[in-house]
Structures are given as structure tokens and as C-alpha cells.
Amino acid sequence: MSAVALAPPARRRRRLPAPLRRLKPWVGLVLLLALTVAFLLPILWMTTTSFQAGEKMFQLTTDWIPSVWHPENYPNALGRAPFPTFFFNSTVVSVIVMVGNVVFCTLAGYGLAKFRFPGDRWVLLAILCTLMLPLEVTLVPTFLVVYQFGWLNSYQGIAGPLIIEAFGIFLMRQSILSIPSDYIEAARIDGAGELRILWKIIVPQCRPALAVLAVFAFRDSWDQFLWPLTVVSVNEYRTFPLGLVAFGEDYGTPPTEQMSIAVLATIPVFLLFAVLQRWVNRGFGLSGLK
Amino acid sequence: MTDSVGDGGLAARGYSRPAGRPFWRLHFQRRITLWGIAFVAPALLFFAVFKFGPMIWAIELSFTSYDMVSAPTFVGLENYRKLAGDPVFLASLTNTLVYIAGSTVLITVVSLGLAMAINSQVPGARYCMMAMFLTNLMPIIAVCLVWRFLLHPFGLITQLLAPFGVDRVDWLTDSRTAMPAIIAVTTWRFAPYFMVVFLAGLLAIPRDYYEAAEIDGATARHRFVHVTLPLLMPTIFFVVVISALLSARIFLMPYIMTGGGPGNATRVLSMLIYETGFSYLKMGEAAAISVVLFAIMLVFTMGQMRLFMRGERVHG
Predict the structure, then answer these.
(1) B3: exposed, middle or buried (C-beta count within 10 Å: 0-12, 13-18, 19+)?
(2) How far apart, in whole angstroms, are the C-alpha atoms of residue B273 and residue A138?
(3) What contacts B9, CB < 8 A, 6 or more positions away?
(4) Quick check: is A1 in a domain?
(5) Is residue A157, in this structure, part of any structural domain at all?
(6) ipTM over cut 0.90
(7) B283, A6: Cβ pair inside 8 Å?
């Protein structure tokens, strides 16, 4: 390492006195905890505020624990607009998007990782290019495409353009690349069909990547705002972010109730994360794909 | 039967069938190739319909005037000429670039800092990481609403800063602080994701390098500059490109938190695309703005693509 050789000549490291040295990991822990709390503070604030009385919002001291709990904020908020419908729509769309991504990204990732065909590198490059074509860029023509399909105000219209994301394909490809090809060859020699190989050999080994993909696909779809705003114009198909924004624009709706909806909207993503956490943890190492 | 017949140059790239392999073997090989194509085909078809098709259509539309009622009429470069003289477009373009630059730098620095803090062998660091990652899972709409209240002149941020003698600041309604505030919220939301990416990069650096550096007497700062940074370069590059692409498409944060204001201080291109296309039904002009936004994203991806292709050549 020539870079290290460039470092100045050895300096005696200042050593802390023994009692302080024993304290050192704890200092780090306290600092890290402070940082974590700082990051979590807004989530905490959202949760406590959702139980707060409406007029307490902007008092100059924040009651971290409400003096009087107002759980009725939740049913009140849900009753002010068809939020159950909005949440149902969001769930339908997000589940479609999640399943679509898991299935098609696995297929494409496998095809690109373990098969050679003419132009395979160009396919890879083309998929990389789609990272530059998010819905925000292609908003107008994608709307026209969906309009041509007659998909305005429908689940397939909201979910359609999100069914496959390049990110997922790269994630799955990266994960499948690390599976030894010998396994696949051996299975082929034993006469296993290609789909059977995919299901029995590939899928079980990339559970961590699949878990990461599922969480991210669900979250991204759950987060969509601009696209549903563009293709949906009736309450029947509105997703919750649209409802929540319209709700916030009504004067007279207490912000505390808005926070209740925000809490309810946060729960499904956290739940999915918690359920898949065992695998997500191991899959995290993969998300640094290039 | 020679290998090069109809195999699209596969033979030239080393996928030839070894000499003496029977004919059915080649057939077998070709069937596998077809399976590979079949696996990738759905994704390609999808991208053709929902990504490449629309992009080509956008370029086409950008040379027309189209309101969805009458057929598009060709107007040449008129849309672009109009944009070049439109102060709102120019302000949005500047804002988008400022936003991309600001949030990319801040996200990269903060997430690297967090990753190094997590990586510092502190007990319980893993749990801190998981906790921080939650900000990345919170729905963006909830993030925007919560931060709009926190940044309110009487909100929590003002309360927290009061003991330090900071007077009340109208974060979101002052044209000097609105954009920095949105950049800060963006960082809060996205840095924990890139922290995880950086952590993976840091864990991949062999410990021996640090031990060797320490034996040579390198201080912590030198270890960071001469060991960590160079070895982390590909990850840093990845984080910069991806966060730039993320920021280029930002819509919801300024839309909810400031509505593009005050004035046009936080109006970004994606907001302008939506307004022009769907509020004013000027599809051609909206398409022209899309093409500009695409050009910005293209610039940020070029480097990544070259790096990617180089990597493919080495490992692929």
C-alpha cells in the first residue's frame, strides 16, 4: 500500500488513562444513540401528536407524552374522507407492484445472470438506461399510453407502469450471479426443467435479495403520488396519499388527525419490514449493487 | 455444422461448443439460450411499452403543440424557444440543479458519516442502523406533512433551537431557507438508505489494510484518506449517481411543503411538467421540459454507465 507509506512517520499514539479507556465504547454508544434519537424524533413526534388535542399543535413546548390522550383522533380522521377505500386502493396497487417486481425481476435477473444470448450486454445497458426514465420524466407520454389502453381510473392504470423496476433486476442479477453455475448444470444433467431449476435452486438462495426487493417495491408503490394524481380522477380509485393531501387542504381539519392518518400509513411498510427483517438484514449487503 | 452458424457471434465470444461435442448438445445449448431470452423478454417488452416508447414519444411531442383535444401540430423548436425565454422555467431549472447538487452532496456526506459511526464497533450499532433505516420506510407523504409542521415558525425545530439563541425562522416561507430546508428533509429521508449501501462497502474493505496502516503509524484521519476513501470510491460514485437521479425526479417534497413557493423559490422541473401538461394541457411544452429533465439525468448517468460497462468487461 503505497498510500499508507505516504503517511507521516509513526507518532506515539496518545493513550487515554485506563478508566477513560474503559469508558470509550460507551461514549461512542451514547453518541450513536443520540444520533439515532435525532433521526427518530420526527417519527416519535408524529406518533404522539396523533394522540394530541387539536389545539396543542403549536404551543411553544411540545408535550412528548400527551397530558390527555385523544385516541378518537383516529376514527375521526378516518371518517372525514373515504380513507378506508383509499388505503384499500393503495394496498391493492402496492401488492400488485410488489408481486410483479418480485416475479419479473427474478426472471430477468436470472436470465441476465446465468444465460448468454446475442446482445445480452446491450439488454443490460438498456435496462440501466431505464433508471433515467422515471415516471416524472415520461409523465406526459406514459399518461397518453395508459389513456390509449383505456386504463385511466383503474388499478392496472396506477400499477401498470410500476410493475418492473430496473433496480430490482440489477438486485436480483447481482444476487443470482453469486450462485455457482455448477448447481444449475448439475440440475440440468439430472433432467430438471428450466423453470424447476429457477424455483428449486435459484429462488431459495436469493431470499435476502427477494426480501429487500419486496420491501422496496412495496414502499415505492405505497409512496407514489404524482402518477396516481395524473391517472386517477375519482375517489373510487384514489390512493391514500391523494386523499391525505386533499384532506390537509381542507381548512378546519385538525392537523393532529392528519398525523393519525400519517401514522396509519406508516404502519404497513414498517410491518412488512418487520416480517421480512430476518432476510432483509442479510440482503442489505446486496443493495450496494453497481 | 459449424459453431458460428446463426448463433449471433456467440462463438466468437467463447461460447462455442467444444470440439467433438455431438450435434444434440448444440441443440441443447441453443434451447438454453432461448430460455434465457424468454426470461428477459417480459421485462424488455415492458420497458419498450412504458419506458423507451414513451421517451421517444416525448421527444416527438416536444416538437409539436398538443392539447389532447385536436391532433398534435408540428411547431419545430417553438416549445424550446418558448422555454428558453420563460423565467418560471429558468427558475425551475436552476432550482432543480441546486437541489440535485445540494442533496447529493449532503446525502453522500451524511450517509458516509453514519455508516462509519455504525461501523465503529460500538455495541448495539446494528440496532441503531435498523432504527435509522425506518426513516427510509416512512411514506414520503407522511415525511412531508410531519416536517411541514416541524419547520413551522412555531414548530419543534424553532423550540429546539431557542435555547441556542436562534430566533424564530420561517423555514418554508422564506425564500432563502426554503430550499435548504427541503434539502435537509431529503437528506433525513434518504441518507439512511445510502448509509446501508456505504456500510456494505466499508465491510468489504479487508481489516488487514487498516492494521497495516496502523502499524505504519497512520492516524485515524490518514487511514480514512488513504485507505477508506480510495477503496470506497466505486461505492461513493454509485451513491452520488443514484442520489442525483433520485433528486432529479423530486416532486412531492416541494409540492407539499412549499407548493413551489415562496415565489418560485422551490419550484422544480417535475412540478412544472405536471402543471404545464395537466393543468394547462400544453402537452408539447410539457414534453419539452421532460426532455430537458432527461438530459440532466443522462449527464449524471453517463459516468455510471461507463464504469458499469468497464466492470462488466472485467467480471462478466
Answers:
(1) middle
(2) 10
(3) A118
(4) no
(5) yes
(6) no
(7) no
Contact A132 B39 (CB under 8 A): no
Model-wide pTM > 0.95:
no
**B238:A288 CB<8 A:** yes
CB contact (8 A) between residue B301 and residue A229: no
Report pLDDT for B1.
Answer: 38
| Residue A136 falls inside a structural domain | yes
Q: Which of B44, B159, B249 lies at the smallest CB-CB distance from A136?
A: B249
Q: What is the pLDDT of residue A139?
A: 92
> What is the domain-level CATH number for residue A248?
1.10.3720.10
State the residue range of the domain holding A181: 83-288
Residue-range domains of chain B with CATH:
11-61 (no CATH), 81-315 (1.10.3720.10)
Compute the distance between CA of residue B268 and CA of residue B198 in angstroms, rounded to an integer.
29
Residues of B in contact with A263 (CB under 8 A): 142
The torsion angle over the Cα atoms of residues A126, A131, A137 and A140, rounded to 10 degrees, is 60
pLDDT value, residue B156? 83
Residues A144-172 have pLDDT tens digits of 999 999 999 999 999 999 999 999 999 99
Furthest-apart CA atoms within chain A: distance in Å? 75
Average pLDDT over residues B282-297: 93
> Does residue A37 form part of some domain?
no
Q: Between residues 186 and 215 of chain B, which touch chain A (CB distance below 8 Å)?
A: 188, 192-193, 196-201, 203, 209, 212-213
pLDDT in tens, A95-129: 999 999 999 999 999 999 999 988 888 999 899 88
**Nearest-by-Cβ selection for A39 from B154, B158, B192:** B192
Q: Measured between alpha carbons, how far is A222 from A242 in angstroms, rounded to an integer?
A: 11
Chain A residue numbers touching B200 (CB-CB < 8 A): 284-288
Q: What is chain B's length?
A: 316
pLDDT score, position A89: 94
In chain A, the number of structural domains is 1
d(CA B234, CA B202): 11
